[in-house]
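Researcher: Good morning. I'm working through a list of sequences from a screen, and I'd like to move beyond sequence-only analysis. For each chain I'm collecting a predicted structure so we can compare shapes side by side. This is the next one on the list. No need for commentary yet; just the structure.
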Amino acid sequence: QVQLVESGGGLVQSGGSPRLSCAASGFTFCSYLMRWYRQAPGKGPELVASTTGAGGTTSYADSLKGRFTISRDDAQNTVGLQMNGLKPEDAAVYYCNAIRSYGSVVFGRDYWGQGAQVTVSS
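Model: Good morning. Structure tokens for this chain:
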């Protein structure tokens, strides 16, 4: 079955540069759009970044461009999120998400990991 397992995060000092990783299994990874979402307490989910398979494109939330970098390794079935210059408002649970895609078209259901907590200390 489909599994998405996040790792990384934890307690990070403000200004720190943690990296999250998501290990995927149970589906054809290169055919899926991979996304990172985050959800802070009391707020709705926010799309952080996305990356298409097979050397495709990446996109970011406007507010995070330049600080966060998404990357994927289609040979290892992993997707990462490098976060730089962490701010208190970046504290959230970060979720890995996968949905089948062809070009810019997505279809079918999406899948979620269990989430990785990122806490920022000032």
